[in-house]
Amino acid sequence: QVQLVESGGGLVQAGGSLRLSCTSSRSIFSINRMGWYHQAPGKQRLLVAAITSGDSTVYRDTVKGRFTISRDNAKNTVYLQMNSLKPEDTGVYYCNAENSDYLLMYSWGQGTQVTVSS
Q1: Residue 49 CA neighbour count, 13 Å, CB half
Q2: Of 91, 65, 73, nearest to 12 (Cα)?
Q3: Using an 8 Å Cβ cutoff, are 91 and 18 in contact?
Q4: What SS3 class is residue 43?
Q5: What are the residues facing 79 on neighbouring strands?
């Protein structure tokens, strides 16, 4: 069973930065797309950023220009650089993989908590 381990979260003031990491127990080299998801308290889990095997990226409008997703296939790791953080970015961040039909491939990890204070 593939394990996804997210890390890098924490408490930061508004305007600050964090870098999240997601390491997979299986190679991500051929994965169609890796994504970062945000679950705010009491809300649905939403995709905020994704990167394809060809390094194309997509971002939710609310994070465009502030977040950057990247991947290191050699380390089986996907990163999310989060800048200019806002209180509404607070929540748990998860990563997952998507196949060519954009269906989730793996069980969710434990996520990493991000708290942005105003």
Answers
A1: 24
A2: 91
A3: no
A4: coil
A5: 21, 70
pLDDT tens for each residue of 10-42? 999 999 999 999 999 999 999 999 999 999 999
Q: Which residue has the tokens 């290191």?
A: 72
Amino acid at 13: Q
Whose CA is closest to 38, among 102, 101, 117, 108? 108
Task: Compute the residue count for the chain.
Answer: 118
Q: Using only C-alpha atoms, what is the Rg of the chain?
A: 13
Cα–Cα distance, 17 to 13 (Å, whole number): 9
Q: Residue holding tokens 């060809």?
A: 54
27: which 2 tokens? 């190679």
pLDDT, tens only, 80-113:
999 999 999 999 999 999 998 989 999 999 999 9
What are 78's two structure tokens?
A: 């996907």
